[in-house]
Design goal:
177 residues, alpha/beta, 4 helices, 31% strand, globular
């Protein structure tokens, strides 16, 4: 069983929030540009499955069309929910869910949601992190990184500014000496 590659691709405000205090995402409109997806479609094409938190799933399930069509979606939730698009629900350690996905032949997983990304980072299971920094200060909300995390060295693969003011950073897990 091969361990799947695990990557996160998220937007964050300059002050480190991925959503407003009540989960609002309207602030992302500040960088909406016709025809520009900041590489998200190519990233999504590169993954076989998603591992998302309950709050992220709850927000995404209301999107029309379903943004993850054709992808296996595993949701971390304490209790099963009603799947609308074939999602599966899992309680417990996200690393164990990654291992189970790997046992199913999944090669690349997209981790989404502050809690999931933080747990995977803490467990040293996150191989790639792409935060797109939006030129907005929210002041409060859902933080990208949650809880105390161990120090982790990352290696900058690229940094790209866009005309909208968004700056996309691509980090990889740093090799340990």
């Amino acid at each position: 069983m091969a361990r799947p590659l695990c990557s996160a691709f998220l937007a964050a405000s300059v002050d480190g929030f991925i959503a407003g205090p009540r989960g609002e995402l309207e602030w992302l409109r500040a960088v909406e540009t016709p025809g520009e997806d900041y590489g998200f479609a190519a990233f999504l094409d590169s993954v076989d499955a998603l591992l998302v938190g309950r709050s992220t799933w709850k927000a995404a399930r209301s999107f029309e069309p379903w943004p993850y069509a054709g992808k296996r979606v595993a949701v971390l939730a304490h209790a099963p929910r009603e799947a609308r698009h074939g999602e599966t629900f899992h309680a417990g350690d996200p690393g164990a869910v990654l291992d189970a996905l790997g046992a199913e032949g999944i090669r690349h997983v997209y981790a989404d949601g502050g809690s999931v990304v933080s747990q995977l980072l803490a467990a040293d299971r996150l191989d790639g992190l792409t935060p797109s920094v939006v030129p907005v200060v929210l002041g409060d909300g859902v933080r990208l990184f949650q809880g105390p995390l161990p120090a982790r060295a990352l290696s900058l693969a690229s940094a790209r500014p866009f005309p909208s003011g968004l700056v996309q950073l691509v980090y990889r897990r740093a090799r340990q000496p």
